[in-house]
Amino acid sequence: MSTQTPAHSLSPLEARMEHGALAEKVARWDQLYHTEDAPEVDDATYDAAKRRLLEIEAAFPDLAAGSPTARVGAAPAEGFGKVRHAVPMLSLDNAFEDGDVREFVGRIRRFLALAPDAPIALVAEPKIDGLSISLRYEDGRFVQGATRGDGTEGEDVTANLLTLSQLPRLIEGAPRVLEVRGEVYMTKADFMALNQRQEAAGDKVFANPRNAAAGSLRQLDHRITATRPLSLFTYALGDASEPIADGHWQFLERLKSWGFPTNPLATRCDDVEAVLAFYHQIGEQRAGLPYDIDGVVYKVDRHDWQQRLGFVSRSPRWAIAHKFPAEQARTHLKAIHVSVGRTGVLTPWAELEPVNVGGVVVGQATLHNEDDIARKDIRAGDTVIIQRAGDVIPQVVGPAPDAPRGPAAFSMVAALTPLGGDHPVCPVCGSHAERIEGEVAWRCTGGLVCPAQATERLFHFASRNAFDIEGLGEKNIAFLFHIGRVTKPADIFRLGEIEAAIPDEKKALWRSPKKDKLAQSIPRDMLDFHTQRLGPLPLIAFEGWKDKSVDNLLKAIEARRAIPLERFIFALGIRQVGEATAKRLARHYGSFGAWRQAMMDAIPRENEAYHDLVSIEDIGPSVAADILSFFEEEHNRIALGDLAGQLTIQDAAKPVSTGSPVAGKAVVFTGELTAMTRAEAKARAESLGAKVVGSVSKKTDYVVAGPGAGSKLAEAQKLEIAVLSEEEWLALIGG
Ligand SMILES: [Zn+2]
Fold first, then answer.
1. Which of 50, 82, 127, 698 is catalytic?
2. Which domains does the chain have, with CATH numbers?
3. Which residue, 92, 324, 603, 606, is the most exposed by fewest CB within 10 angstroms?
4. Where are the beta strands (DSSP E) in 358-436?
């Protein structure tokens, strides 16, 4: 960070470029964190990126429009009803050093024009690492619960919250409207027990308690939530029909008297020194607490002061979160292995002597890539420092400074070249491994012949945000792949047919109590021999499978035979096509047939179908190239046809309000807007059924041009497309 140019010294072009690149990263991290419960970077990296964005925006305010800094989280996932928060659910500013906290109190004094020694009482509460929620009570009855979502609009998780035994359903003596906010979390012990159960059932295991809590609460089927051990703490007020208390401490007391769970460690401190002492004391207790916390929150106690202090951009001036540093531990790095991902990326990881890091036993850690290992000089045999920062997969910080070192530096070439071999190969399939020019990653070139890639792809295909097939986790996919029953996605939808065709007498044989089941790891050639002679074996022939579990799996698969187009596209696992891009493709092309035809048409590039593809927002030449190279491969086209034949692929949702004059129209915004931000304009247009695209083509219907519009305006004039001013646009859509 120290080598960065101060934001105010950047040229406007440099600022725009750096801001654009960083905003894209942060938006992606936000998306992963909030809608997929799968963080990609550690908190420190994320916070640093976000601070830099804010710095640049402070120097170049026009860059703030639509920036991820303006959002608290991500928009709600589909599948849940949406709840607009009566009072926005905002995020807190962070403090990292004691000095930041003293400065926070100093700012409050200056803002309220208090004497330098005026006492400011603060309430300090451990910051629970869970999922923020809002609970609405009307006439004392719990009526609605919502996630935070993007801070303005969240998901309706009322039914899911009702499965929490700690949630008061009815409260006595409450105001007519009362909205209480808090955190749903999972204790460390419940988390470990849940993961054990998940693993035994062949289901997804969670990276940490926060992900487990989020994944459990945000289940579309609340009966699944009911089986998950979720806990609750409440700590804030949202909407209320009358004042509840004079101060935060008194408010917490009232919450308790109404039966809400509040954190017993919360304390009222008379001054900043008491607050800091509390922080350091909690820091020492942290590993022993039954739940994960990532800091301590301080709030000005007096409500009248809170009101005067108000908000600065998206955070209250009267509260701050004092974060803990990442939890670290020392352990022995036994070996460095390489695993193969869905797209063939070869990723090194560390096998560790298991060690307890803040209550979670860690036996493996990611090493990212070869460059990262070299930069930190991590070697097999080292004593290393590992850290677990809130949400991320544990990572190796580096060798412990005072310990003896491992013998040899790590090299991907050496790790991937077998004894006696002369070139690097994939550790799973033995195909050539290569480091692609300009990338840090190594890749297996085996494609579909690589079982690791094939199983990773199948796993992605069945995962929550794709086909979401319950019971088809990593373990079961590996098993079905191993026995040759499922080697490509379409095979999943043939499982039922195969099982149904096996005669009952043959199944009955395997139900006999005397008959030993086959090991799941039975060698493949023995299985093939058996299958050739006797036909396919029923799944109940294998250990771990019973009629009931087979039945449940087949039912879960049948339930997904009809699938929305956007999920279908996402499930294909095309490089760079994440959920957001899949959604845009689905909306743009409407149906599977139209999309497939358009992609085939676009393959020659530089034609109308291609320009139409790259005119979709956020789809540039690089994403387009990945999509088209998927369609260029014959085996992909065959697999796609095979799969589509098994499914009912539902057309993308039609624009909501067909009555609007802009429904179905393609609109480009360019230049400066004055009445609203670009992001707001876009959201508004989309809610009216318009399609907002990034570049002007013959298919564009309107170009809305503000001051400073350049090449897009020129292009529109050349193509004789209707150009509207912002006012004309607003008039068209009715204000
Ligand atoms: Zn391979």
1. 127
2. 7-70 (1.10.287.610), 93-323 (3.30.470.30), 327-444 (2.40.50.140), 452-558 (1.10.150.20), 562-650 (1.10.150.20), 666-732 (3.40.50.10190)
3. 606
4. 360-366, 383-388, 395-399, 433-435
Distance 428 CA to ligand 1 centre (A): 5
Q: What is the distance between the alpha carbons of residues 394 and 222, in angstroms, rounded to a whole number?
A: 30
Give CA–CA dist 641/654, Å, rounded: 24
Q: How much of the chain exceeds pLDDT 70, in percent?
A: 92
- Indicate the angle between helix axes 634-646 and 592-602, nearest 10 degrees: 170
The CA distance from 724 to 681, in Å, is: 14
Structure tokens, 331: 């352990």
The pTM of this model reads 0.51
> Is 127 among the catalytic positions?
yes
**Segments of 496-572 assigned E as strands:** 562-564
Q: Do 180 and 135 contact (CB within 8 A), yes or no?
A: yes
Distance 453 CA to ligand 1 centre (A): 7
- In the block, residue with structure tokens 């026009």: 62
Q: What is the pLDDT of residues 472-484, one digit of tens each?
A: 988 899 999 989 8
Mean pLDDT (whole number) for 550-571:
94
Measured CA distances, 574 to 582, 600, 635 (Å): 10, 15, 14
Is residue 268 scored above 90 in pLDDT?
A: yes
How wide is the angle at C-alpha 74 spanned by C-alphas 166 and 230, nearest 5°? Answer: 20
Q: How far is the CA of 485 from the centre of ligand 1 (A)?
A: 20
What 3-state class would DSSP assign to 159? helix
**Which stretches does DSSP call E strand in 508-625?**
562-564
Spacing, Cα 333 to ligand 1 middle (Å): 25
